[in-house]
Amino acid sequence: MPYQIEDKFVTAVASSALFDLTESDSVFRTRGEDEYRQYQREHETDVLNTGVAFPLIKRLLSMNGATAEDQPVEVVLLSRNDPDTGLRVFKSIEHYKLPISRAVFVAGRNPFQYMEAFNASLFLSGNPADVKEAVERGFPAGCIYPTDFIDDDEDHWI
């Protein structure tokens, strides 16, 4: 059932920042779009490894309470990937038990046009060029960089 996001802190995150899509990106760059789509379909049940933004997104979502009235944070995916990748990404979201249900997969087009539709306050990506483009379009954005920090799942401090 749909629910309102107008009064929430909505963070848009690139699917490639939430999950490690390095391997499939390599297929796209070396073998082309058709083989990339085939690769994604063949691996749609393979859970993706976590990406650079995963710990932050997980922590943001942990601020939500158990009731609909106590869920101030919403995370949406904005992705230049195609729907074949989307299926794999959502299977990984389900695997990691992330409460993310909204996404746009634009198959190479500009995903920033959906920022306002999702009421997004911030866009996060591991790609500096995407962050720069979002800022140039007037959207708050930040780049998440790889780190050696290990997020402790047992640490529930927010």
Automatic annotation (TrEMBL):
GO molecular function: 5'-nucleotidase activity; magnesium ion binding; nucleotide binding
GO BP annotations listed: nucleotide metabolic process
Cross-referenced InterPro entries: 5-nucleotidase
Domain of life: Bacteria
Recorded GO CC terms: cytoplasm
Record-linked Pfam families: 5-nucleotidase
Protein name: 5'-nucleotidase
Species name: Paenibacillus naphthalenovorans
